[in-house]
Amino acid sequence: MTESDILVEVRDLKVHFPIKRGLILDRVVGHVKAVDGVDLSIPRGKTYGLVGESGCGKSTLGRALLQLNPPTSGEVRFDGVELTTLPAGKLRTMRRRMQMIFQDPMSSLDPRQNVESILTEGLQTHGIGADRDDRRRIIGETLDAVGLPRWALSRYPHEFSGGQRQRIGIARALVLGPELIVADEPVSALDVSIQAQVVNLLDELQDNLGLTYLVIAHDLAVVKHISDVVGVMYLGALVEEAPSDRLYSEPLHPYTRALMSAVPVPDPDVEDRRERILLAGDLPSPANPPSGCRFHTRCPWAQPTRCADERPALREIGGSRVACHFAERIATGELRPHKVSAQIVRPEGEGEDPAVVSAPTEPGSYV
Amino acid sequence: MALLEVDDLSVTFARRGQRTVHAVDGVSFSVDAGEVVGLVGESGCGKSVTSLAIMGLLPKQPGLRVGGKAVFDGTDLLQLDDRSRRDIRGRDVAMIFQDPLSSLNPVIPIGLQVTEVLTRHRGMKGEAARKEAAALLDRVGIPDPRRRLKEYPHQLSGGMRQRALIAMAVACRPRLLIADEPTTALDVTIQAQILELLKELVRDSGTALVMITHDLGVVAGMCDTINVLYAGRVVETARRRPLFRQPRHPYTVGLLGSVPRLDAGRGERLNPIPGSVRDVLTWPDGCAFAPRCTRRVDECVGEPPELVLTHDGRSYRCVNPAPVPGTPPPQATTTASTGAADDAAASTGAADGATAGPVPAPREEEKP
After folding, report:
1. Does the ipTM exceed 0.85?
2. Do A187 and A335 share a domain, yes or no?
């Protein structure tokens, strides 16, 4: 793959949020490492899916990509341009080429703006369209593309159903003619039958306009359906990245295996047959992540050596990238899962304790 | 005799100057002891209102009317006065809600909230109640239960809160448990834990479970019998396997077609149901699903479709159901479906005359 085929390239991206204490003098007592060293690249015209449980940093990663949350360190290259060091004015013009679709269309659309005003705002900001008529033409074409009728222009968001509101959100992103669209949970607020309509719409738009997507969602089935490549995140880092078919047929990382086995499939035969890997406990706090492999505290395959003290790097195994020391040996069945962690028990002292924040004093001192 | 027999349950909300809302419009289903029954449907289909009506938890407001029967072990829950209903609720019938943070009291420690049930229904006090509460938390998989008893809901994670809520629900070993979207607010791995816990509780204690959810995957793994709801009515009832293998009602077919499946290959397009839940016909005017239905025939409009019972114990409310692949259609269906096709031409005039007009075409989405 040549350099120009890659639209977005992320290198060692970190986003840390300070935890502050104190009423008058804010002391920084620690950092929530929402994203902690992510490498990924998205080829032009493809869809990259990002999955993970709540709090794993997938949304923060998406926002950091668009520089909506300033990254703590790392590089984000968009079409060869480094975004993290770009001056504000230049970044603003770049934003035309990368847009976002939000989860809840009701709270991301201004209730007091009608659809025309919502769609015109971006065009005006970026100086697209020669005059009013020209802008109207662009808006009309966008409405057709997302399947909204023309009479929608004079209406307000509350007059639409959930699915239609999400279409307005998509139209707002699309009207600027972007190359990259970051969709953060685009369908999770919608009913099942409407979900399918929006998923199909996103597919269609990609075919017609050659868009590149970063789709962030917790619903594995939806992500797998629309993505070419899926990245699985756990506690701020990618644990596995694989072509979407492979992810289900041959998950390599123990976390991916557990995730895949936990997703309910609407088919009783599959449900009864398949083996479930129940993880113990909850996601540990990202303010105080476990040492070594972040997943070792819940991992049914955790080994006494290496797992607790050496953080595994993403390495390539047969077309996938996996961050696990023992991925090959797990895949061949050489290592068996422990019985004890497969039960619903949480070992004492493990996992988050929201009352106590005990973070390392320096950001990045986890190694 | 089933443990819970819901018969023709209807809930309407009337408001002056506005259209009366028929949230639940003649729902009937039954639950046997130890059985897991699913109520499935999209938002607005009346599944939650059904459960609240059974529990007597609907807000008392003028304009609310609850009709029909919900017979639990010989007593009609809907006819009870508040006092005796409170005696049954929490002891014989318990409920688990969707959002554990808003259903737990934020200013009272978990322990007190669990012991409250024990004090009210089992007359336990002091140390005995605390001990039992700790045992309950332990049973639902909360580690270090003694310490957790003193903690407040915000100190627990989402999965822990849901476990605490389940502990409260099963505190008196109820015979019927109603779970309203118990895992919707949770992550998949936590969802798997909670579902496993519920299965275990049902298996061990013989509790009947009514599972209300929109997630067909959850239903496929848990329920024995499934009721699919649409616009306040049960449109299809079947055992788990037949429902997923051969859905008969076009709405069920549509639902199954619009869910992306994890085990499906990439590139298969989804088959969404056109329109949205708001495109409904009122039931007296015909099938509520008709405006969105792909198998619509003229008989769909005019009068509500009758419930068709088939020999294998399933039922659906449709005049033109999806055919069973491979096998010849059973007796009841043959008359319904071929009759529909044959009579279509002859009865068009009559059908048109009886109704206000033809069925509106399925639109991509409804007009606001």
Report:
1. no
2. no
Residue in B193, B241, B262 closest to A220 by CB: B262
Mean of the per-residue pLDDT values for chain A? 84
**Joined tokens for residue B262:** 């994890």
Please check whether residue A62 lies inside any domain of the structure.
yes
Check whether residue A104 and residue A200 sit in a common domain: yes
Nearest by CB to residue B141, choosing from A161, A164, A344, is A344
In angstroms, what separates the C-alpha of B43 from chain A's closest C-alpha?
7
Query: Do A81 and A211 sit in the same domain of this protein?
Result: yes
Contacts of B157 in chain A (CB under 8 A): 282-283, 351-352, 354
Q: What is the C-alpha separation between A170 and A148, in angstroms, rounded?
A: 11
In chain A, how many domains are there?
A: 2
| A130 is a domain residue | no
Read off the pLDDT band of B141 (50, 70, 90): confident
In this structure, are A189 and A79 located in the same domain?
Answer: yes
Quote the domain boundaries for residue A281.
251-265+273-339
pLDDT at A346: 37
The total of other beta-carbon atoms located within 10 Å of residue A214's CB is 27
Residues A70 and A215 in one domain: yes
What's the half-sphere exposure (Cβ side, CA atoms, 13 Å) at B191? 28
Task: Give the A window 182-211 contacts with B, CB below 8 Å.
Answer: 191-197, 199-200, 203
Nearest of A282, A60, A98, A101 to residue A189 by alpha carbon: A101
Q: A299 and A199 share a domain?
A: no
The answer to whether residues A51 and A101 belong to one domain is yes
Q: Where are the alpha helices (DSSP H) in chain A?
A: 58-65, 88-95, 105-108, 115-125, 132-146, 162-174, 192-209, 220-226, 244-249, 254-262, 268-273, 327-331
The three-class DSSP label of residue A1 is coil
Note whether A119 and A163 are within 8 A (CB).
no
Residue of B nearest to A228 (CA): B266
Q: Tell whether A196 is covered by a domain.
A: yes
Instruction: Give me the DSSP letters along B229-278.
Output: EETTEEEEEEEHHHHHHS--SHHHHHHHHHS--TTSPTTPPP-PPSS-TT
CA distance, residue A165 to nearest chain B CA (Å): 11
Distance from CA of B226 to the nearest CA of A (A): 12
Lowest mean pLDDT among A24-28, A92-96, B37-41, B138-142: A24-28
Segment A78-97, tens digit of pLDDT: 998 999 999 989 998 899 99
Nearest by CB to A193, from B255, B264, B268: name it. B255
Q: Do A55 and A200 fall within a single domain? A: yes
Residue A357 contacts B, CB cutoff 8 Å: no
Q: Which amino acid is at B281?
A: L
Distance from CA of B263 to the nearest CA of A (A): 7
Cβ neighbour number for residue A107 with a 10 Å cutoff: 11
Residue A240 counted as domain residue = no
Q: Do B220 and A199 touch (CB under 8 A)?
A: no
Residue tagged 């001192």 (tokens): A365
Pairing of strands A47-51, A229-234: parallel
Counting one residue from chain A and one from chain B, the pairs whose CB atoms sit within 8 A come to 170
- CB contact under 8 Å between A269 and B241, yes or no, is yes
